[in-house]
Amino acid sequence: MQQISSVNNKLIKDLVKLKQKKYREETGLYIVEGFHLVEEAFKACKGYIYLLGTEETIVQVEQKYQLDYTSSKNIIINSAIARHLSSTKNSQEIFMVLKISQPKVYSFNYGKWILLDHLSDPGNVGTIIRTADAAGFDGVILSPESVDLYNPKTQRAMQGSQFHIKLIVQDLLTAIEIFKNNSIPIYSSVLDSSAKQLQEFNSVLQLGLVIGNEAHGVSSAVAQISDQKLYIPIKGKAESLNAAVAAGIMIYYFA
């Protein structure tokens, strides 16, 4: 097992850079942090590049999952380095470095999917993915303009659902064309005169449900080619619902 004691160590410097999207894209690597996400990665049998933690935390994980204590992939660090690597105020001092794995071939020929159109808030994106996982949806498709799937805040908000559900970054117009070729209807959450209240819809076996940008909603190009437009009626004085809350209501309505 390696042991690193300085924040100036080259590997540590390289790993700190993974907080930035640019370096995640360059290296094809990202970091998950905290016992829950590390354990979910192990449960999903994700092969890891490095496991880093203080002696106490790394031994705890190694004993639980019967890892090779001598492996060079397992690295003991001190609390100062843990704070340096952490994206949270109260680090649990355990980290895992994983490979970014985006599928090269996409198949949307069945099931229920969420399509995220230019969503910009990592907490919303992570919460929607977690909700889709809990409701038994097959996957989530993110437009390339949406927040980075491997953003640390997005990773924390998903709470391990990133290891359970299909997550694909794809141009939505291209994805929708594939859905339509497979007779899967596209429903978009849109506020306009042609939209119907959510309660007017019946349950369906398959669909692609589009959630739009927090400020601007579903893009006009996507709305125009949607099969159905829907909205959630506001009964009080609030102007609108949070994107993740609205998505959760619709996801479970169609689950």
UniProtKB/TrEMBL annotation:
Instruction: Cite the MRM3-like substrate binding domain residue spans from the record.
Output: 9-95
Annotated protein name in UniProt? RNA methyltransferase
Q: Which GO terms describe its molecular function?
A: RNA binding; RNA methyltransferase activity
Domain tRNA/rRNA methyltransferase SpoU type, which positions? 114-252
Family annotation (CDD domains): SpoU-like_rRNA-MTase
- Give the organism, scientific name: Lactobacillus bombicola
What protein family does this chain belong to? Answer: Belongs to the class IV-like SAM-binding methyltransferase superfamily. RNA methyltransferase TrmH family.
* Keywords linked to the UniProt accession: Methyltransferase, Transferase
Query: Per the UniProt entry, what is one GO biological process?
Result: methylation
**Taxonomically, what lineage is the organism?**
Bacteria, Bacillati, Bacillota, Bacilli, Lactobacillales
